[in-house]
Each structure stands twice: as structure tokens, then as C-alpha cells.
Design goal:
Elements lengths: L2 H5 L6 E3 L1 H4 L1 H14 L2 E5 L8 E7 L2 E7 L5 E5 L14 E3 L3 E3 L6 E3 L4 E3 L16 H4 L6 E5 L2 E5 L7 H5 L3 H8 L7 E12 L3 H8 L4 H5 L1 H11 L11 H6 L6 H6 L2 E3 L5 E3 L13 H11 L1 H9 L4 E4 L3 E4 L4 E9 L2 E11 L4 H14 L7 H14 L7 E3 L14 E3 L5 H14 L6
Antiparallel strand pairs: 1-19, 2-11, 3-4, 3-6, 4-5, 7-8, 8-9, 10-11, 12-18, 13-14, 13-20, 14-15, 15-16, 16-17, 17-18
Length: 436
């Protein structure tokens, strides 16, 4: 598919359904879009000790994140330079002081350099030098960066560097990390993984969609309200699950007034004024610890800023409060894995971690009363788009021709500009390295 044909699929206020349905287009995404963007790999707390590793798939390429002997974290292609055999196959573990290929026992140091080759003399005079790093080592992707212990990688060496790509979007990571008086987070509590038979863009759009909660999650919020109603006085402290689920039923006016912000390259913040997470019970001792660590003004800024969702496009969605992230892992045009992770905030009370775990189970578990609504609709959309009729997906709400000239802008919370911003970035990075 030529560059012009791909560009024709994205208009200013709508996109073609092929972006969700076409397997050939998804293959091009793997080759171009995901290779040209900075994607989340993992968190350094997942590999605390030398030799600890985590494996992931990025744009169809197997990667391994590993803690080096010198304390640094490396990201390497998970393949032997000899025959391409994966060097480690578990999701996580410890490889010891080196990687050893299970096929022919080639070994590599933790930085990917070749350590030893059995029967090395057999290569003499063949033209192949296994010691040559270009041929014999574990290679790194085109770019690797670590920001506040969040690890990202980019397959292709070209395009924007890490700081230019994310820009102001990194403030959302900073807000999350700075909720720790010690400035450290630790992934804990395992991962909730959900395989959804839908395109990854459907899920990512929905993270910025504030019109759907009132209707999509009506049964869940209604049931929660019924359970809570009459159990205590109106101003009584709510149980954690009730405190977290009832705001899903807030009216359209609430979601409209919460505000949103678009940033260059598809990044965004939803809930710039307030969000469904703004009403959690105060923790005076914790707040005092933040003031002692960061100063009064910065602590106030951290605590008052609790967006609904912040997106580091295209693979990471963050919630500063509760401290959770979702990672989008596309597998095919109609298959996406969503990972939900919880953070323990070091130096903070256990209640913050409890909030994180409870929220993930409540909202993102495949068996939750909230996620079940979404998954049912996402998979229905994937089927429904194949029906005859309108071939275009509307993103018109709040559209103004003037928005095209502004890479950063604040808007009302129900404006679909946050979604339009994603597709403009999609087109930019999809065609960045295409010749025609």
C-alpha cells in the first residue's frame, strides 16, 4: 500500500474502517508505525538484580529487558546471532551472569556482547567472524531510554529522539513517580492480562472517551449505588470499591467539565481540571510526608492533579491516582492484549497500594463488572465494522478547522479532539519512513 493510499484513510474529522479491519495494514503498522514510535517496554523494578530479565514482544520483534552487572538496564533483541533461537523463553526470570542459547550453547554477556562460541575454530577461514559484534552479538533496538525507571524502546534508529517525541507528556510520569516521598515506585501484585478480539486503536480511543461511561457502565454503577444506598449516612466514608465505582455514573456535564489536553505526537491528558479519581479520601500523614519531600507547592500540585487518564502514545496509559498503568500490546488487526499493572508507592501508606490493586481488579480485570461491559462492546465493534453501510468512523464531536494549527490545546472533556490527535500521529509515524 502506497503512502498516498494510507493518507487517504485519515481525514481531519473521520477515519476509514480499514484502520481497524485490514490485516495487510496491520502488517505495515508492525513494519513502520510501531517501529517509528517510542513504546513502553517495562519498569526497572521488574528486574531488581543482575541477570533478572523480562521478555516482551514489540511490533512482532522479541525483546528482553535485563539488569546488567553494572546496575544499568538494557533492552536487547531476544535472539541468538547464530540461528535466531530465543535465548530466554519465560516471561521473566534470572539468566545468571550470561545468556546461553539452548540450541548450540553460544553465550552472551548481559550487555549482549558475545562471550563464547563452541568449536570456534571451525569458523576460521569461512568469512564469518562470530566475535564481530555486528554479526555475533545480541543487538539493541534503534533507541532505548529510561525515564524515572520507565523503560521505552524504538525499533528504528531514525525519527525523533526520546525527549522530543514525548515532550510535555513526560510530566504525567513525573506526577506518578513524585507521589512517592522517596521518588520511587515498585511494580507489585502481578499483572492482569486480557486478550480482546478487537483492534488496538479501539481500546486506545476508548481511554479518552467520556461519553460512554454513563450508558456503557449504567448497570454496574446502578448496582453499586443500590448496594450503598441506605447502608449509611450520606456523608459517611465509603468502602473503597464503592468510592471507586460510583463516579463512573457521573453525568455528561461532569465529564465535559473535567477538561482534556492534546499534546504533540498523539499524547494527551484527560481530566485536567478533575476526574473520577479526585474525590478519594484524604490521608493527612501521607500528604505531610509529600510536603516534607517536595515542598509545599510541588506537593499541592501533585495531589491536586489526578487525571482520568494520561496517554504516552501509543502504548501506555497512566493513572496518577490510583497508581496504575495499562499497556497496549497489539497482536493482530483483531487481537489486542491489555496489561494492567499496580505500583507500590515507596514511602507511602499501604492504603495507596490497596487502592491501586482494588481499582485494577474493579475496572480492568476481565471478570470485573466494568471491563466486561467494555470488552463486550469492543468485540462487537470489530464485528460490526464489517457490515455493509458507512465505511467511515466519525470523530466529529467538537471539531474545528482551527485545531489543525495547534499541536497543544486544552479542550472540554467530551471533545473527540483527543482521539483525532491520535490518528494524526498515527498517520505521521506510519508514513515517516515510507518512500512514496
Amino acid at each position: 500500500m502506497r503512502r498516498a493510499a494510507i493518507a487517504a484513510l485519515v481525514e481531519d474529522e473521520r477515519v476509514h474502517r480499514d484502520l481497524y479491519l485490514s490485516e495487510p495494514l496491520f502488517a505495515l503498522e508492525q513494519k513502520h508505525f510501531f517501529a517509528n514510535t517510542w513504546n513502553y517496554v517495562g519498569h526497572t523494578s521488574q528486574v531488581p538484580n543482575a541477570g533478572d530479565y523480562v521478555t516482551i514482544d514489540l511490533a512482532g520483534r522479541p525483546l528482553v529487558m535485563v539488569r546488567h552487572d553494572d546496575g544499568s538496564v538494557r533492552v536487547l533483541y531476544n535472539r541468538c546471532a547464530h540461528k535466531g533461537t530465543p535465548l530466554v523463553t519465560e516471561k521473566s526470570g534470572n539468566t545468571g551472569r550470561f545468556f546461553r542459547c539452548p540450541y548450540h550453547a553460544w553465550t552472551y554477556r548481559l550487555d549482549g556482547t558475545l562471550r563464547a562460541v563452541p568449536l570456534a575454530a571451525g569458523y576460521d577461514g569461512t568469512g564469518f567472524d562470530p566475535v564481530d559484534a555486528a554479526q555475533g552479538g545480541m543487538q539493541a533496538p534503534g533507541g532505548v531510554a529510561v525515564h524515572r525507571d520507565f523503560v521505552f524502546a524504538k525499533i528504528n534508529p531514525g525519527g525523533p529522539d526520546f525527549a522530543s517525541y514525548f515532550g510535555a507528556a513526560l510530566a504525567s510520569i513525573d506526577n506518578l513517580v513524585d507521589r512517592s516521598p522517596l521518588g520511587r515506585l515498585r511494580i507489585e501484585g502481578g499483572c492482569l492480562r486480557t486478550l480482546i478480539r478487537c483492534n488496538w486503536k479501539t481500546y486506545l480511543e476508548n481511554i479518552n472517551d467520556t461519553v460512554h461511561p454513563l450508558s456503557t457502565h449504567e448497570s454496574a454503577t446502578s448496582a453499586a449505588g443500590t448496594v450503598w444506598q441506605g447502608r449509611a449516612a450520606a456523608d459517611a466514608p465509603k468502602p473503597m470499591a464503592i468510592e471507586q465505582i460510583l463516579p463512573f455514573g457521573s453525568g455528561h456535564d461532569f465529564f465535559d467539565r473535567m477538561g482534556g489536553r492534546i499534546l504533540p505526537n498523539g499524547h494527551s491528558v484527560l481530566g485536567t481540571a478533575f476526574s473520577i479519581h479526585s474525590g478519594y479520601a484524604a490521608l493527612p500523614e501521607y500528604e505531610e510526608a509529600l510536603r516534607a519531600a517536595h515542598g509545599v507547592e510541588r506537593a499541592k500540585e501533585i495531589l491536586q492533579h489526578s487525571p482520568q487518564n494520561a496517554i504516552c502514545y501509543p502504548s501506555l496509559a497512566l493513572k496518577g491516582s490510583p497508581q496504575t498503568i495499562r499497556v497496549i500490546r497489539p497482536l493482530a488487526a483483531d487481537r489486542t492484549v491489555i496489561e494492567a499493572w499496580s505500583f507500590r508507592v515507596e514511602g507511602a501508606p499501604d492504603l495507596l497500594f490497596e487502592r491501586s490493586v482494588t481499582y485494577n481488579r474493579l475496572a480492568f480485570s476481565p471478570m470485573s463488572v466494568v471491563a466486561h461491559d467494555d470488552v463486550h462492546l469492543f468485540q462487537g465493534i470489530q464485528k460490526g465494522l464489517r457490515a455493509e453501510g458507512n465505511e467511515w468512523i466519525s470523530l466529529h464531536r467538537g471539531f474545528s478547522a482551527g485545531e489543525l494549527a495547534t499541536p497543544s490545546r486544552d479542550v472540554n472533556g467530551t471533545n473527540e479532539m483527543l482521539m483525532r490527535n491520535q490518528f494524526r500521529a498515527w498517520l505521521k509515524f506510519m508514513t515517516l519512513d515510507m518512500v512514496d
